[in-house]
């Protein structure tokens, strides 16, 4: 039968019947590649399993493998599922390979065999990194530097590892496909093959794929890759700073949006098991400074004490600056406008800079009151009273609004030894439930500022 010629985009996977210089789907130039398709019947499925009743399926308690890295376990939903495929992506230099090497060594120390296959680094480079970040190398780790996935599969048969790392999936190829590495066809077929290996009923395996990231800070390749795997992990963090955050954007075995925090050091990624201590500065009564306040935010399911710092300085320009790395500039302008109109504090001649401890991005509204208090504190040059947290949203009317999971946030503040918590009058929290924490309910932003600064 005559082979059919089509053209497939190497960037997005779009298939066209005719050739174009520019892909009609993603607008990339010179990415359509000729591909020959031989029509015919598909091969019969090799899967001869019978369907099972849902109630009859047994789930054992050892389906997950927990590591000694607590923040990693949290993001994974309690550990790595034995027949799962996960993909980890991040910008170059963020610590993908470092974290996976630590996880691999931890699992190997539990007596499991690990195969680390890399299409980007040589065995010597991998060994040098391992010696730098690990105190002792396990005897159960095998390293294989190659671009052929067929060769990797042969090593899987030979070594029989329970944990496999493919670094990165875009650099591997299967011999039966003529496309070059990194094309959608090769990437997806390699991912399909590894999924088949992981889901084997007789020998389930834990597989981690490293995924390259595009200039738009997205996982490289077609969206089908994200749909195929069980878990999609993302490492975020500025390469100039130590803080790294690990987030699950997809997790079939746990909650999506869970975040773990790490500190990047010469010894690898160190788990920050108590983020509340990391994202705040403990000061005594005599060490209080103007422009600093504390709130309790939620990252995933966990409450975290977060310090917000503000600096209000005199401007000599017609338009004062509004600068923030932690919240959007439009949001900062909104909070400043509320302070001007509802609290009567003018900022026409003030530059305002807002920063959160550790450079963490604030994505929820519960810290709005804390941000506004820190701005006023810097403007008046008056420090905020010690051992206080501010947990409330602030509306355009100046009223304090209730925030979700307030009880969880207040319990974290009480656990960390705080004495006062300012919340919305409209919250339904029971103040008598907190013995060591005084929960103060306020109506609006002006009432809060009058009580704190006596304005």
TrEMBL record:
BP terms from Gene Ontology: recombinational repair
A GO cellular-component term linked to this record: cytosol
Motif window: RadA KNRFG motif: 250-254
Annotated positions binding ATP: 90-97
Name of one Pfam family that matches: AAA_25
Sequence segments annotated as region (Lon-protease-like): 351-455
GO molecular function term, any single one: ATP binding
Keywords for this protein: ATP-binding, DNA damage, DNA repair, DNA-binding, Metal-binding, Nucleotide-binding, Stress response, Zinc, Zinc-finger
Gene3D superfamilies: 3.30.230.10, P-loop containing nucleotide triphosphate hydrolases (3.40.50.300)
Family of this protein: Belongs to the RecA family. RadA subfamily.
Domain characteristics, as noted in the entry: The middle region has homology to RecA with ATPase motifs including the RadA KNRFG motif, while the C-terminus is homologous to Lon protease.
Its job: Plays a role in repairing double-strand DNA breaks, probably involving stabilizing or processing branched DNA or blocked replication forks. DNA-dependent ATPase involved in processing of recombination intermediates, plays a role in repairing DNA breaks. Stimulates the branch migration of RecA-mediated strand transfer reactions, allowing the 3' invading strand to extend heteroduplex DNA faster. Binds ssDNA in the presence of ADP but not other nucleotides, has ATPase activity that is stimulated by ssDNA and various branched DNA structures, but inhibited by SSB. Does not have RecA's homology-searching function.
Name of protein: DNA repair protein RadA
Gene name linked to the record: radA
């Amino acid at each position: 039968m005559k082979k059919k010629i089509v053209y497939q985009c190497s960037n997005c996977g779009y298939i066209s019947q005719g050739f174009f210089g520019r892909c009609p789907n993603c607008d990339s130039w010179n990415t359509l590649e000729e591909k020959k398709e031989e029509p015919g019947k598909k091969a019969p499925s090799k899967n001869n399993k019978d369907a099972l009743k849902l109630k009859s399926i047994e789930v054992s308690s050892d389906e997950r493998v927990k590591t000694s890295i607590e923040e990693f376990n949290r993001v994974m939903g309690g550990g790595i599922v034995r027949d799962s495929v996960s993909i980890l992506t991040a910008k170059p230099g963020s610590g993908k390979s470092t974290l996976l090497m630590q996880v691999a060594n931890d699992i190997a120390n539990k007596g499991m065999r690990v195969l680390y296959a890399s299409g980007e680094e040589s065995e010597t480079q991998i060994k040098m990194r391992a010696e730098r970040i690990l105190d002792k190398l396990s005897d159960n780790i095998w390293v294989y530097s190659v671009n052929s996935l067929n060769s990797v599969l042969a090593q899987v048969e030979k070594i029989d590892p329970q944990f496999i790392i493919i670094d990165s999936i875009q650099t591997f190829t299967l011999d039966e496909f003529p496309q070059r590495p990194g094309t959608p066809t090769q990437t997806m077929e390699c991912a399909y093959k590894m999924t088949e290996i992981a889901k084997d009923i007789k020998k389930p395996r834990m597989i981690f794929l490293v995924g390259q990231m595009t200039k738009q800070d997205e996982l490289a390749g077609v969206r089908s890759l994200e749909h195929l795997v069980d878990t999609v992990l993302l490492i975020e963090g500025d390469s100039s700073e130590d803080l790294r955050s690990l987030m699950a954007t997809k997790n079939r075995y746990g909650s999506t949006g869970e975040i773990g925090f790490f500190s990047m050091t010469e010894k690898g990624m160190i788990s920050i098991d108590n983020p509340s201590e990391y994202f705040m500065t403990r000061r005594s009564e005599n060490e209080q400074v103007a422009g600093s306040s504390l709130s309790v935010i939620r990252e995933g399911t966990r409450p975290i004490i977060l310090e917000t710092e503000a600096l209000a300085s005199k401007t000599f320009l017609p338009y004062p600056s509004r600068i923030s790395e932690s919240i959007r500039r439009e949001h900062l302008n909104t909070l400043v406008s509320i302070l001007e109109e509802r609290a009567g504090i003018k900022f026409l001649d003030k530059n305002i800079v807002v920063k959160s401890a550790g450079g963490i991005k604030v994505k929820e509204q519960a810290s709005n009151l804390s941000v506004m208090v820190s701005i006023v504190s810097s403007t008046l040059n008056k420090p905020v009273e010690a051992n206080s947290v501010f947990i409330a949203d602030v509306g355009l009317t100046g009223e304090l609004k209730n925030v979700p999971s307030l009880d969880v946030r207040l319990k974290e503040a009480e656990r960390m030894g705080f004495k006062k918590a300012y919340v919305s009058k409209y919250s339904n929290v029971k103040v008598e439930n907190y013995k060591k924490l005084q929960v103060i309910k306020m109506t609006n932003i002006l009432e809060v500022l009058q009580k704190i600064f006596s304005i």
